[in-house]
Amino acid sequence: MSAGGTVDVVELTAADADALRDWAAVTAESARHEVGDHATAWAYEELLAVLQNPSRARREQFFVARRDGEVVGTTWLAMPLLDNLDSAQVDVHVRPDQRRRGTGSVLLRHAEHVAAAAGRTRLDAEAQWPHTGPADGAGTPGVELLRAHGYAFGIGDVQRELPLPVDDALLAELAGETAPHHRDYRLESWAGPVPDDLVEGWLAVVNTLMTEAPTGGMEREEEAVDVAAFRASEALLAAQGRTAWRTAALDRDGTVVAYTEMILPSYETRFVYQWGTLVRRDHRGHRLGTAVKVANHRALQAGADVAGRRVVTWNAEVNDHMIGINERLGFVVTCRAGELQKRLTG
Ligand SMILES: CC(C)(COP(=O)(O)OP(=O)(O)OC[C@H]1O[C@@H](n2cnc3c(N)ncnc32)[C@H](O)[C@@H]1OP(=O)(O)O)[C@@H](O)C(=O)NCCC(=O)NCCS
Fold first, then answer.
1. Distances in whole angstroms, Cα of residue 34 to Cα of each of 40, 49, 110, 166, 335
2. What's the pLDDT at 3?
3. Less packed terminus of the chain by CB within 10 Å, N or C?
4. Which atom of ligand 1 is nearest to the CA of 101?
5. Packing angle between helix 227-239 and helix 199-206, nearest 10 degrees?
6. Which atom of ligand 1 is nearest to the CA of 90?
7. Can you tell me the distance from the alpha carbon of 283 to that of 182, in angstroms, rounded to the nearest whole number?
8. Which of 33, 63, 145 to mutate to test the pocket of ligand 1 (most atoms within 8 A of CB)?
9. What is the DSSP string of 143-174?
């Protein structure tokens, strides 16, 4: 596609090694421009693995915008294939020295066009800005671009980081505090794939994260990832050089009622990513949220060399309970993000 006069938008394949490297470099440069060293970005090897291992749960596409042969902007477009079938997620970046020339708009419109052609009518996007900025992101480039294109602000998130290692004495203290409250539950921690006997229960809880975590004004459905698709996503993690560190809480029947997971990437050496944490509604009030997180940190620190890394986590600004747990662990605020949504019509 050629648009904006001099900008060409091209979809990448696994064979486009140079362009994929440019995609990773430009996206990282743009994200760092917004939030400095707190920017998390895909390594080239991680996105190559996505293109080499197409998922049954989610279709992901990568585009670059070129001006005079040079990559000046990037798009990531993802469409769930087992749930949320009317939705797509889009992320657009433009090289800092190339902004306000219409490139972001060209990329966003192109992604919307591809999503609409695939029958998607609900577009989700995210933008980040420094934590000193306003809660609604007014005046920041990402939010302003999205608003200019008809996206509505749905919910504000706050990113926090925790330098590793966490003091063992603090972890022991927190584990000691929570233990009397969850005597009826067993905690299991491990690295890598979810054991066969737990995987169905694990997914039953994980699939509700999207709707159980605060959603603000964002419309969302539960996920419906099945075991086969989940196993494929675990294989993709391995191909990306990422190791999942996981803890589950099991009730007396051995059913998974709470979980947490952290991702330790090998191509990115600054961060550990905190992914979901959730306690099933009917098992709340037993300090299981703190307990699974503390157990997972202990397992990670005992089993991997993570000194010098930072755990990065994102919470809805209104998620007081999870934020309280994170602050006890020592997480500090680093930047803000907003989730925005648009309904495509016609
Ligand atoms: C957001 C981003 C992609 C915009 O790229 P861009 O090429 O500068 O965007 P455009 O030139 O197409 O801007 C289109 C309109 O968006 C709005 N806009 C974009 N940047 C803005 C800013 N810094 N301040 C205010 N409005 C802005 C304006 O309405 C602009 O129109 P105008 O230039 O005629 O006033 C770029 O700033 C970026 O990469 N930011 C970091 C990543 C991000 O936040 N992505 C958005 C999430 S999808």
1. 11, 27, 23, 28, 10
2. 44
3. C
4. 11
5. 90
6. 48
7. 10
8. 145
9. HHHHHHTT-EEEEEEEEEEEESSPPHHHHHHH
pLDDT for residue 222: 86
State the angle between helix axes of 288-303 and 320-329 in degrees (0 to 180), rounded to the nearest 10.
40
Q: Same CATH fold, 161-338 and 2-120?
A: yes
pLDDT of residue 210: 79
Ligand 1 atom with the shortest distance to the CA of 108:
48
Segments in the chain below pLDDT 70: 1-5, 346
Taking CA atoms only, the protein residue closest to ligand 1 atom 37 is 141
CATH no. for 2-120? 3.40.630.30
Question: Taking the complete model, does pTM exceed 0.70, yes or no?
Answer: yes
pLDDT at residue 317, rounded to an integer = 86
What is 281-327 written as a DSSP string?
GGGTTSSHHHHHHHHHHHHHHHHS--TT-EEEEEEETT-HHHHHHHH
**For the chain, what are the domain ranges?**
2-120, 161-338
Ligand 1: residue whose CA is nearest its atom 44: 142
Distance 206 CA to ligand 1 centre (A): 34
> For position 5, what pLDDT does the model report?
52
pLDDT confidence of residue 4 = 45
- DSSP readout, 225-251? --HHHHHHHHHHHHHTTEEEEEEEEE-
